[in-house]
């Protein structure tokens, strides 16, 4: 049965013209090194597509090699500038050459060729050259050592620490294959809310075993380092970065790690955020803490990714402003193997946020984009939400720093400020569920993340097409309707949960379902009323110069635009402004009527997705069809729940009747 375990690497037999073409063009393989993993992957994929074993022959049709293989050099292709990860795919006569800058690049090239074959794209006259735009394309697992995954909706962690290092679950290899197939080349194994135990010798040996499984696939491991580890597992009285004994402990720890994992990637750190320990506990700065770790890793080529997701209990200032306030003064103070990791928006992975104002504001520091693949605030695994459009919106945003055309993507890929290091991080949606991701369509978000980390210039639609063809089959009668469900799904969730710039109205703690009424509790910014500020007369967070002033963390051109209702994009209206319920918007509706309209649109889009999926019954295998149909019905019900709960609550505040034409909930 189709249970989703194979992800987008299904390789079910082709038929008709696609089969004939693949057989003619890719029916056999030649390789300088027949033991290379790229040969194994190509042969596995093609054998599936052709429904029979694909031979490896001296004069095979598909020629695999790296730029330093004499057989490849003899072909006279231009292989300059490929770097280790780049590759070329070229049709030469009746042969197809795949040449990688290294074995990793070759592996990526092979997966690209397989993708073309799965998509039933033309396989003649191929002339492709690919080099990734970002060097470190990393997954962040928020996996605890007891296998609980923080914000994970796909079951337990796939890391079975108890049985490692001796037992290496075959699933680890499948994980590596899936990641390599989309260009992911790094993984942080443990939660940013870290447990120092992972840095003890027995656990490092488990980590080394995983690293050994991943290495042939070009994937390095990284770990989250708990800042207080010297105290907790090192026997030191404190973890003050200014104390040479603390620095020496980290240095020895780094040496130990590299002695068993020579290609270890480095550390990710969440410090002085949400109760985590950090340098500020000792009156030091984020830079002091990051630099100490960076010095320990530098001799081995390791890096530090220091998170900017900080906000403090004691600071009464607008939470959206705090990361910028703390980090901008530190620009230029970090070692050159430190990167600062910034979430796409300034609050917290909301269905939609304006780009984080730190992008463009720290030109001397390489910034890592942190996206959340797991759908914490997005309905978890049962809501079908394709996230590429949301990520693209942020990547394509123009920071106007220092001038027009300075997109967030160019900040992150390092091209704007000439940084040597560049990285993107995606908080993984992976667990032991048979689908890996909690649902069939959530696999698309893992896939899209990898593809965008490789090339942020790809469109959401192109990525969705690739994924849908590989996952469900290349027939346009399947792919087109599936795309018509995926592409509007992000706007739909924004509309039925938090339209017009509303944010953080989800239930406390779990962040599932509507709770705009949330107030009280330990801290103001863990309530909903903090964010929507609804009163009898109006709603929205005033972040203008008359309010919190957050607008001035953006380049002047944005600041001026966000400062006025008229020039604020409607999708961010209530993010930046407190607006009267009865105020007329550009759409001609009052704000109250516009909210109702948007809730309704979101629900209608989901209803449309259901109808489309119903039309695919019989065209998709029963198992995947049934699960998706059921999940869509949950999503539909919950979209209505979001509207009804929100509307009832807003009415309890302002007492207005429903706008004409709107029906009360049944
Ligand atoms: O989004 C919030 C989550 C926390 C998470 C934190 C973070 C890992 O609710 O679960 O902790 O962000 O990103 O550090």
* Uncertain residue ranges: none
Q: According to CATH, what is the topology of the largest domain?
A: TIM Barrel
Number of helices: 21
Order of strands, widest sheet: 6-7-8-9-10-11-12-13
Structural domains: how many: 3
Average pLDDT over all residues: 97
Largest β-sheet summary: 8 strands, parallel, barrel
Q: Please state the second-level CATH architecture of the largest domain.
A: Alpha-Beta Barrel
Tell me the structural class.
Answer: alpha/beta
Q: Give the CA-CA distance, first to last residue.
A: 39 Å
CATH homologous superfamily descriptor of the largest domain: Glycosidases
Which word captures the global form?
A: globular
Oligomer: single chain
SS elements, strand count: 15
Hetero groups in this structure are: 4-O-methyl-beta-D-glucopyranuronic acid
The first-level CATH class name of the largest domain: Alpha Beta
Helix fraction? 25-40%
The value of Rg in angstroms is: 26 Å
Q: Report strand %.
A: 5-15%
